[in-house]
Design the sequence.
Protein backbone atom coordinates (compact mmCIF):
# COMPACT_ATOMS: atom_id res chain seq x y z
CA UNK A 1 0.00 0.00 0.00
CA UNK A 2 1.15 3.51 -0.70
CA UNK A 3 2.18 5.39 2.41
CA UNK A 4 0.36 8.59 3.22
CA UNK A 5 2.46 11.74 2.94
CA UNK A 6 2.02 14.80 5.09
CA UNK A 7 2.96 17.09 2.21
CA UNK A 8 1.49 15.41 -0.82
CA UNK A 9 3.09 17.70 -3.35
CA UNK A 10 6.65 16.92 -2.33
CA UNK A 11 8.77 14.42 -4.27
CA UNK A 12 10.58 11.68 -2.43
CA UNK A 13 14.26 12.38 -1.89
CA UNK A 14 16.17 9.54 -3.54
CA UNK A 15 19.39 11.26 -4.42
CA UNK A 16 22.59 10.14 -2.73
CA UNK A 17 23.38 12.99 -0.32
CA UNK A 18 27.09 12.34 -0.64
CA UNK A 19 27.21 12.30 -4.44
CA UNK A 20 29.61 14.77 -6.02
CA UNK A 21 28.11 18.03 -7.18
CA UNK A 22 29.46 21.19 -8.65
CA UNK A 23 30.14 24.01 -6.21
CA UNK A 24 26.99 25.85 -5.12
CA UNK A 25 24.75 23.37 -6.92
CA UNK A 26 21.41 22.43 -5.44
CA UNK A 27 20.45 25.74 -3.84
CA UNK A 28 19.16 27.72 -6.79
CA UNK A 29 15.76 29.15 -6.16
CA UNK A 30 15.98 28.60 -2.44
CA UNK A 31 14.52 30.97 0.10
CA UNK A 32 16.93 33.83 0.96
CA UNK A 33 17.44 32.35 4.41
CA UNK A 34 18.72 29.17 2.82
CA UNK A 35 21.60 31.00 1.14
CA UNK A 36 23.20 30.23 -2.20
CA UNK A 37 26.29 28.24 -1.41
CA UNK A 38 28.26 26.39 1.21
CA UNK A 39 31.36 24.20 1.30
CA UNK A 40 30.97 20.51 0.66
CA UNK A 41 30.38 18.59 3.89
CA UNK A 42 33.57 16.56 4.10
CA UNK A 43 32.33 14.62 7.12
CA UNK A 44 29.43 13.11 5.20
CA UNK A 45 31.13 9.86 4.20
CA UNK A 46 32.84 8.91 7.50
CA UNK A 47 29.71 9.65 9.52
CA UNK A 48 27.67 7.68 7.01
CA UNK A 49 29.91 4.69 7.70
CA UNK A 50 29.13 5.12 11.40
CA UNK A 51 25.44 4.81 10.59
CA UNK A 52 26.07 1.66 8.56
CA UNK A 53 27.97 0.13 11.48
CA UNK A 54 25.12 1.04 13.79
CA UNK A 55 22.47 -0.55 11.57
CA UNK A 56 23.42 -4.06 12.66
CA UNK A 57 22.52 -3.16 16.24
CA UNK A 58 19.34 -1.26 15.44
CA UNK A 59 17.10 -3.81 17.13
CA UNK A 60 18.63 -3.29 20.55
CA UNK A 61 16.60 -1.07 22.88
CA UNK A 62 19.49 1.17 24.02
CA UNK A 63 20.45 1.74 20.39
CA UNK A 64 16.86 2.68 19.57
CA UNK A 65 17.06 5.39 22.20
CA UNK A 66 20.29 6.59 20.62
CA UNK A 67 18.66 6.75 17.21
CA UNK A 68 15.82 8.86 18.55
CA UNK A 69 18.36 11.24 20.06
CA UNK A 70 20.33 11.84 16.85
CA UNK A 71 17.32 13.26 15.04
CA UNK A 72 18.22 16.89 15.83
CA UNK A 73 21.37 16.53 13.70
CA UNK A 74 20.11 15.58 10.25
CA UNK A 75 22.55 17.99 8.58
CA UNK A 76 25.45 16.30 10.34
CA UNK A 77 24.74 13.18 8.27
CA UNK A 78 23.13 14.46 5.06
CA UNK A 79 24.19 17.15 2.60
CA UNK A 80 21.41 19.77 2.80
CA UNK A 81 22.24 21.55 -0.46
CA UNK A 82 19.85 19.57 -2.69
CA UNK A 83 17.03 20.16 -0.20
CA UNK A 84 16.41 23.89 0.41
CA UNK A 85 14.08 24.73 3.25
CA UNK A 86 10.52 25.37 2.08
CA UNK A 87 9.32 28.33 4.10
CA UNK A 88 6.07 28.27 2.15
CA UNK A 89 5.11 25.26 4.30
CA UNK A 90 4.84 27.49 7.39
CA UNK A 91 1.11 27.84 6.77
CA UNK A 92 0.54 24.18 5.92
CA UNK A 93 -1.68 22.19 8.25
CA UNK A 94 1.05 19.85 9.55
CA UNK A 95 3.25 22.79 10.58
CA UNK A 96 0.39 24.85 11.99
CA UNK A 97 -0.75 21.79 13.93
CA UNK A 98 2.76 21.28 15.29
CA UNK A 99 2.86 24.87 16.52
CA UNK A 100 -0.57 24.46 18.12
CA UNK A 101 0.57 21.35 19.98
CA UNK A 102 3.76 23.12 21.07
CA UNK A 103 1.74 26.00 22.51
CA UNK A 104 -0.53 23.56 24.34
CA UNK A 105 2.56 21.88 25.76
CA UNK A 106 3.84 25.26 26.95
CA UNK A 107 0.49 25.84 28.65
CA UNK A 108 0.69 22.47 30.39
CA UNK A 109 4.24 23.31 31.46
CA UNK A 110 2.92 26.56 32.93
CA UNK A 111 0.35 24.68 35.01
CA UNK A 112 2.98 22.25 36.25
CA UNK A 113 5.34 25.10 37.09
CA UNK A 114 2.75 26.89 39.21
CA UNK A 115 0.94 23.94 40.78
CA UNK A 116 3.65 21.37 41.46
CA UNK A 117 6.08 22.53 44.16
CA UNK A 118 9.75 22.10 43.41
CA UNK A 119 11.78 20.17 45.99
CA UNK A 120 13.76 22.42 48.30
CA UNK A 121 16.92 20.43 47.64
CA UNK A 122 16.68 21.30 43.95
CA UNK A 123 16.03 24.98 44.65
CA UNK A 124 19.08 25.06 46.89
CA UNK A 125 21.25 24.63 43.78
CA UNK A 126 20.68 28.32 43.09
CA UNK A 127 23.44 29.18 45.54
CA UNK A 128 25.89 27.78 42.98
CA UNK A 129 24.73 30.11 40.22
CA UNK A 130 28.13 31.78 40.25
CA UNK A 131 29.52 28.67 38.53
CA UNK A 132 27.40 29.42 35.46
CA UNK A 133 29.89 31.73 33.72
CA UNK A 134 32.71 29.25 34.31
CA UNK A 135 30.68 26.33 32.93
CA UNK A 136 29.71 28.31 29.85
CA UNK A 137 33.26 29.52 29.25
CA UNK A 138 34.80 26.06 29.52
CA UNK A 139 32.14 24.45 27.35
CA UNK A 140 32.11 27.08 24.61
CA UNK A 141 35.85 27.79 24.62
CA UNK A 142 36.77 24.11 24.39
CA UNK A 143 34.20 23.53 21.67
CA UNK A 144 35.43 26.44 19.55
CA UNK A 145 39.08 25.39 19.77
CA UNK A 146 38.29 21.74 19.01
CA UNK A 147 36.01 22.68 16.11
CA UNK A 148 38.70 24.93 14.63
CA UNK A 149 41.26 22.12 14.85
CA UNK A 150 38.81 19.81 13.07
CA UNK A 151 38.22 22.43 10.37
CA UNK A 152 34.64 23.32 11.29
CA UNK A 153 32.89 26.52 12.12
CA UNK A 154 31.12 25.62 15.38
CA UNK A 155 29.71 22.22 14.32
CA UNK A 156 30.46 19.33 11.91
CA UNK A 157 27.80 20.52 9.46
CA UNK A 158 29.80 23.71 8.77
CA UNK A 159 33.16 22.56 7.34
CA UNK A 160 35.48 25.40 6.35
CA UNK A 161 37.31 25.48 3.03
CA UNK A 162 41.10 25.32 3.18
CA UNK A 163 41.76 28.70 1.59
CA UNK A 164 42.73 32.15 2.83
CA UNK A 165 39.20 33.03 3.94
CA UNK A 166 38.77 29.65 5.57
CA UNK A 167 41.99 29.91 7.55
CA UNK A 168 40.98 33.41 8.64
CA UNK A 169 37.66 32.06 9.94
CA UNK A 170 39.38 29.23 11.79
CA UNK A 171 41.95 31.64 13.22
CA UNK A 172 39.29 33.97 14.60
CA UNK A 173 37.36 30.99 15.95
CA UNK A 174 40.48 29.72 17.73
CA UNK A 175 41.23 33.16 19.16
CA UNK A 176 37.68 33.51 20.48
CA UNK A 177 37.81 30.04 21.97
CA UNK A 178 41.10 30.59 23.77
CA UNK A 179 40.12 33.99 25.16
CA UNK A 180 36.76 32.71 26.37
CA UNK A 181 38.30 29.55 27.82
CA UNK A 182 40.76 31.43 30.05
CA UNK A 183 38.46 34.39 30.64
CA UNK A 184 40.74 37.05 29.15
CA UNK A 185 39.23 40.08 27.38
CA UNK A 186 35.97 38.18 27.62
CA UNK A 187 33.65 40.95 26.49
CA UNK A 188 35.86 41.60 23.47
CA UNK A 189 35.89 37.87 22.65
CA UNK A 190 32.09 37.72 22.97
CA UNK A 191 31.67 40.62 20.54
CA UNK A 192 34.23 39.11 18.15
CA UNK A 193 32.40 35.79 18.23
CA UNK A 194 29.12 37.51 17.37
CA UNK A 195 30.83 39.32 14.49
CA UNK A 196 32.30 36.01 13.29
CA UNK A 197 28.84 34.45 13.24
CA UNK A 198 27.45 37.38 11.26
CA UNK A 199 30.36 37.33 8.79
CA UNK A 200 30.03 33.56 8.36
CA UNK A 201 26.60 34.07 6.81
CA UNK A 202 28.38 34.91 3.55
CA UNK A 203 30.52 31.78 3.01
CA UNK A 204 27.69 29.72 4.51
CA UNK A 205 24.17 31.15 4.81
CA UNK A 206 21.83 32.84 7.25
CA UNK A 207 19.94 29.66 8.01
CA UNK A 208 22.99 27.60 8.98
CA UNK A 209 24.16 30.31 11.38
CA UNK A 210 20.73 30.81 12.95
CA UNK A 211 20.74 27.11 13.75
CA UNK A 212 23.75 27.82 15.99
CA UNK A 213 22.14 30.79 17.75
CA UNK A 214 22.71 29.13 21.13
CA UNK A 215 26.39 30.03 20.73
CA UNK A 216 25.40 33.67 20.35
CA UNK A 217 23.31 33.26 23.50
CA UNK A 218 26.41 32.22 25.45
CA UNK A 219 28.36 35.15 24.03
CA UNK A 220 25.62 37.57 25.10
CA UNK A 221 25.49 35.99 28.56
CA UNK A 222 29.24 36.43 29.04
CA UNK A 223 29.07 39.99 27.74
CA UNK A 224 26.39 40.86 30.30
CA UNK A 225 27.31 38.72 33.31
CA UNK A 226 31.07 38.61 32.88
CA UNK A 227 33.45 35.64 32.90
CA UNK A 228 33.19 34.80 36.60
CA UNK A 229 35.71 34.81 39.42
CA UNK A 230 37.90 32.03 38.00
CA UNK A 231 39.17 34.04 35.05
CA UNK A 232 42.14 36.13 34.04
CA UNK A 233 39.86 39.14 33.72
CA UNK A 234 38.98 38.80 37.39
CA UNK A 235 42.68 38.62 38.27
CA UNK A 236 43.38 41.87 36.48
CA UNK A 237 40.15 43.41 37.84
CA UNK A 238 38.82 44.11 34.38
CA UNK A 239 36.12 41.50 33.93
CA UNK A 240 33.68 44.23 32.83
CA UNK A 241 30.25 42.85 33.71
CA UNK A 242 27.36 45.22 33.13
CA UNK A 243 26.38 46.94 36.36
CA UNK A 244 22.61 46.98 36.23
CA UNK A 245 20.06 45.52 38.58
CA UNK A 246 18.37 43.61 35.77
CA UNK A 247 21.61 42.30 34.24
CA UNK A 248 21.40 38.78 35.79
CA UNK A 249 17.81 38.33 34.63
CA UNK A 250 18.62 39.58 31.13
CA UNK A 251 21.63 37.26 30.84
CA UNK A 252 19.70 34.15 31.88
CA UNK A 253 16.61 34.98 29.83
CA UNK A 254 18.58 35.64 26.65
CA UNK A 255 20.58 32.45 27.17
CA UNK A 256 17.41 30.40 27.60
CA UNK A 257 15.62 32.00 24.65
CA UNK A 258 18.63 31.50 22.38
CA UNK A 259 18.80 27.80 23.22
CA UNK A 260 15.06 27.29 22.80
CA UNK A 261 14.96 29.21 19.53
CA UNK A 262 17.89 27.22 18.14
CA UNK A 263 16.20 23.90 18.90
CA UNK A 264 12.83 25.03 17.55
CA UNK A 265 14.38 26.54 14.42
CA UNK A 266 16.32 23.33 13.78
CA UNK A 267 13.06 21.39 14.02
CA UNK A 268 11.69 23.57 11.23
CA UNK A 269 14.69 23.67 8.90
CA UNK A 270 15.57 19.99 9.19
CA UNK A 271 12.14 18.39 9.38
CA UNK A 272 8.86 20.29 9.44
CA UNK A 273 9.78 22.70 6.63
CA UNK A 274 12.13 20.29 4.92
CA UNK A 275 10.73 16.74 4.88
CA UNK A 276 12.85 15.76 1.84
CA UNK A 277 16.04 16.43 3.82
CA UNK A 278 15.02 14.13 6.66
CA UNK A 279 13.67 11.65 4.11
CA UNK A 280 17.07 11.58 2.41
CA UNK A 281 18.60 10.46 5.69
CA UNK A 282 15.94 7.80 6.17
CA UNK A 283 16.38 6.60 2.58
CA UNK A 284 20.09 6.34 3.24
CA UNK A 285 19.59 4.55 6.58
CA UNK A 286 16.01 3.21 6.85
CA UNK A 287 16.67 1.67 10.27
CA UNK A 288 16.68 5.15 11.80
CA UNK A 289 12.88 5.06 11.76
CA UNK A 290 12.60 3.07 14.96
CA UNK A 291 8.80 3.36 14.87
CA UNK A 292 8.43 1.54 11.55
CA UNK A 293 7.70 -1.82 13.27
CA UNK A 294 4.68 -0.09 14.80
CA UNK A 295 3.38 0.86 11.36
CA UNK A 296 4.63 4.46 11.40
CA UNK A 297 5.76 5.53 7.93
CA UNK A 298 8.67 7.84 7.25
CA UNK A 299 6.60 11.03 6.63
CA UNK A 300 4.76 10.64 9.92
CA UNK A 301 7.97 9.74 11.75
CA UNK A 302 9.64 12.90 10.39
CA UNK A 303 6.69 14.97 11.58
CA UNK A 304 6.78 13.37 15.04
CA UNK A 305 10.51 14.04 15.31
CA UNK A 306 10.07 17.67 14.25
CA UNK A 307 7.12 18.08 16.60
CA UNK A 308 9.15 16.73 19.53
CA UNK A 309 11.97 19.20 18.93
CA UNK A 310 9.55 22.07 18.39
CA UNK A 311 7.77 21.31 21.66
CA UNK A 312 11.07 21.20 23.55
CA UNK A 313 12.21 24.48 22.01
CA UNK A 314 8.94 26.30 22.71
CA UNK A 315 8.79 25.06 26.31
CA UNK A 316 12.37 26.23 26.87
CA UNK A 317 11.54 29.65 25.45
CA UNK A 318 8.49 29.87 27.71
CA UNK A 319 10.68 29.53 30.79
CA UNK A 320 8.45 26.87 32.36
CA UNK A 321 9.73 23.67 34.06
CA UNK A 322 13.21 24.61 32.85
CA UNK A 323 15.06 22.27 35.19
CA UNK A 324 13.21 19.09 34.12
CA UNK A 325 13.61 20.01 30.47
CA UNK A 326 17.35 20.60 30.95
CA UNK A 327 17.68 17.21 32.65
CA UNK A 328 15.86 15.48 29.78
CA UNK A 329 17.94 17.38 27.25
CA UNK A 330 21.15 16.35 28.97
CA UNK A 331 20.14 12.70 28.75
CA UNK A 332 19.16 12.92 25.08
CA UNK A 333 22.36 14.74 24.13
CA UNK A 334 24.49 12.25 26.05
CA UNK A 335 23.27 8.91 24.73
CA UNK A 336 24.63 9.71 21.26
CA UNK A 337 28.17 9.96 22.63
CA UNK A 338 28.21 6.20 23.15
CA UNK A 339 28.06 5.66 19.40
CA UNK A 340 29.38 8.77 17.68
CA UNK A 341 32.13 9.78 20.05
CA UNK A 342 34.27 12.90 19.80
CA UNK A 343 32.60 14.83 16.94
CA UNK A 344 29.26 14.53 18.69
CA UNK A 345 30.82 15.62 21.98
CA UNK A 346 32.40 18.70 20.42
CA UNK A 347 29.13 19.75 18.83
CA UNK A 348 27.22 19.23 22.07
CA UNK A 349 29.64 20.98 24.44
CA UNK A 350 27.96 24.43 24.30
CA UNK A 351 24.61 22.79 25.00
CA UNK A 352 26.06 21.07 28.05
CA UNK A 353 27.24 24.40 29.42
CA UNK A 354 23.83 25.98 28.87
CA UNK A 355 21.95 23.05 30.36
CA UNK A 356 24.11 23.01 33.48
CA UNK A 357 23.75 26.76 33.94
CA UNK A 358 19.98 26.75 33.49
CA UNK A 359 19.54 23.65 35.64
CA UNK A 360 21.28 25.44 38.51
CA UNK A 361 19.67 28.83 37.88
CA UNK A 362 16.72 28.70 35.46
CA UNK A 363 15.82 32.34 36.14
CA UNK A 364 16.82 35.34 38.24
CA UNK A 365 13.65 35.48 40.33
CA UNK A 366 15.55 34.26 43.36
CA UNK A 367 17.71 36.71 45.30
CA UNK A 368 20.28 33.92 45.60
CA UNK A 369 20.72 33.82 41.84
CA UNK A 370 20.96 37.59 41.50
CA UNK A 371 23.50 37.85 44.29
CA UNK A 372 25.52 34.88 43.04
CA UNK A 373 25.79 36.26 39.52
CA UNK A 374 26.72 39.73 40.78
CA UNK A 375 29.36 38.22 43.05
CA UNK A 376 30.67 36.12 40.17
CA UNK A 377 31.03 39.22 38.05
Sequence:
Amino acid sequence: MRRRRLHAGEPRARRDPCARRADREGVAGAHPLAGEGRPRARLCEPRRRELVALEARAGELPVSLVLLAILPHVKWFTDPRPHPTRYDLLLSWPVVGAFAIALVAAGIAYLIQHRVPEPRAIRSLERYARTGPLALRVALGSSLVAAAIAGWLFVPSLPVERDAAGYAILGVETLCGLLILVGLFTRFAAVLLAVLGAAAMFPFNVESILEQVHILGIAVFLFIAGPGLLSLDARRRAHGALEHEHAPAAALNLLRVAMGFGIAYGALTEKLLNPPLAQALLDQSPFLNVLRPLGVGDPVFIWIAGLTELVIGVVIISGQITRPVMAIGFALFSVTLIVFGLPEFIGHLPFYGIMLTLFIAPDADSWRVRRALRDAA
